[in-house]
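Thread: AIM24 family protein, structure

OP (GT): Posting the sequence first so everyone is looking at the same thing. Length is 230 residues per the record. Can we get the structure tokens written out before standup tomorrow? I want them in the notebook alongside the other entries.
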Amino acid sequence: MQAQFLSGGGLDAYRAADTGARMSNHGTAMCRVALTSAADVYAKAGAMVAYDGFLQYEPVPQSLRRALGEWASGERSPLLRWTGDGTLYLADLGADVLNVQLAEESLSVNGAHLLAMDATLGCAVEKVRGPALLAGTGLYNVTVTGSGWVSVTSRGVPVVLDCSETETFVDPDALVAWTTGLEVRTRRTVKVGSLIGRGSGEAMQLGFRGHGFVVVQPSEDTGDRLKIRG
């Protein structure tokens, strides 16, 4: 009776499918993580929407909390460690999900957009190098390094831009992630609003150049930017 119900009324198209990948999309706004007892995952606290199998979660180890510094120094850790055998489904308020497989590479991610990462990956909170950014507060990202999977979110369908052919400029509030090793610089331009008596008069972009890519969301969500007092 249950199988007949699931296959009727068009519901069968929404059933979860095993892709064989460690992290995969179910639709555009949900990440499906295949967990085994030999491969734990760190996931954003509060991001779990469902799971099956024998899974459990716990706070991240103290060693990781120290590596993440002030981002993880509050009463509630931004990440949880999931262990066991089963399937974990993650989402973040309907945001689009992008899964990236690293092969001895590094990815710098806006901390608010980090949905999940393999526990075998190393990570640390680092300040973006270059001139002072964002009104002197500095720009901090979570740098993930090694071989494994990372899942990030975007407020809308993201675009992945190749920086190897030409320098690419991005609004910091629309920036989700980028491959490390890129040359990063700031650029200021006159805001259109200043021409009609409104606005601060200038806007700042980050310029990226080198072998790698940047992930940009179609939203300038200033509340997403991870800031830490320096």
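GT: Both are above now. Quick notes for whoever picks this up: The chain has two helices and 15 strands. Residues 131-138, 223-230 have pLDDT under 50 and may be disordered.
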